């Protein structure tokens, strides 16, 4: 049903040609993370059908772009991870997202169980400013570690925190996440191995200055409000 709605939407909604997304990312002065560190792996899930909509929304876009300072934090996380675990690397699932794609996604999910998980396309969410990353840890040959549930799983099992996020660092400490994730394992919602892998990802990203969104173990962002994000960064208006 979601796929059908998306195809109807594509037929009725003007949208930037996906073939131009790479050029537009560069025009907006975003940087390709693999040009900064070729060891970071990229598998953009919205450039495949392996996502909650089940449709390729990015077309020819295969590269992960970020606002430059945000990209440097991702690079720092990669450095920390490789220093602690040379056998692992970051694997990016989503990065900067054009607002046209965001609006298409939002229209598809309005009125469905997914509505609360997709940012309002009126002004855009963090991905639409190039300052959010969806990622995991993988072996050097690209095999993702077990995180309990996969990318785009929108159940309780994907959560890393039980209370709403805030801009207060004390409410988003590693201990807060660790205690909650261990609680998921104790309740049998995820395995203890998955819990430890999830905590490792959070520790690495946290040390680099990026924090998880409480409902999605894979999503990391700066600890500033969305209103501050919209003031500080440029909307990817294409």
Characterization of this structure:
The protein has 238 residues and is α+β, with helices and mostly antiparallel strands. The protein has a single domain, classed as Muramoyl-pentapeptide Carboxypeptidase, domain 2 (2-Layer Sandwich). It has eight helices and seven strands; from the N terminus they run ααβαββαβαβααββα. The protein has helices spanning 2-12, 21-27, 33-36, 68-84, 99-109, 174-186, 192-207, 226-232; strands spanning 31-32, 41-42, 65-66, 88-94, 132-139, 211-213, 216-221. The strands form two sheets. A five-stranded mixed β-sheet has the order 2-4-5-7-6, with helices on one face. A two-stranded antiparallel ribbon has the order 1-3. Helix 1 (2-12) packs across helix 5 (99-109) and helix 6 (174-186) runs antiparallel to helix 7. The two termini are 27 Å apart. Residues 4-16 have low confidence and may be disordered.
Give a brief outline of the structure.
Helices cover 36% and strands 13% of the residues.
Classification by helices and strands: alpha+beta
Q: Which bin fits the share of residues in helices?
A: 25-40%
Radius of gyration: 17 Å
Please provide the ordered H/E string of secondary-structure elements.
Answer: HHEHEEHEHEHHEEH
Largest sheet: 5 strands, mixed
Terminal Cα span: 27 Å
Total tally of structural domains = 1
Overall average pLDDT: 91
Low-confidence stretches: 4-16
